[in-house]
Write the structure tokens for this entry.
Amino acid sequence: MKFRLEQCFARPLGEIEDAFVDPDLFVHLCGIDDIGRPTLLKRVDEGGTVRMQVRYTFTGELSPTLTAIVEPHHLTWVEVSTLDRDTHRTAFNIIADHYPDRMRCAGTVELIDDGQGGTRRVALGSLDARIPLIRDYVEGAIVKGLLKYAATEANIVGDWLVSRRQAET
């Protein structure tokens, strides 16, 4: 299943790009829509590129249909990403800690200057849930969760940037 997520920020592209690779941001991204606080596992800043590995944990409720085939406490994954600061594009790959044969997800995130001092963050990805009979249901539920997460995340990031600016003045 292909998906597209879009977030809008009233801050310049450089500020948004820096925010999403700032280790301090992850402390503020806790309890968003059935996802626990992300854990930054690795961050390598090479100037023009930033490579990161971030672990996520699903903390929401699952239907009995899903708990019959997966254990909820095993729904953890690592997002491996590489930001190219020249193109403002990030390539990402999601690697499940458990059940890696049942889900694949990868894509890109692009930051786009909106021409009015703001930034659009657009993610394009592909999700493949390899679960017979309920594949469409699972993929639809995951994408719906991603859309909800992205909306909440955009608000938190915006508030975090405002609080940082205020602390600097």
Remarks:
- Helices lie at 13-19, 25-28, 64-67, 135-168.
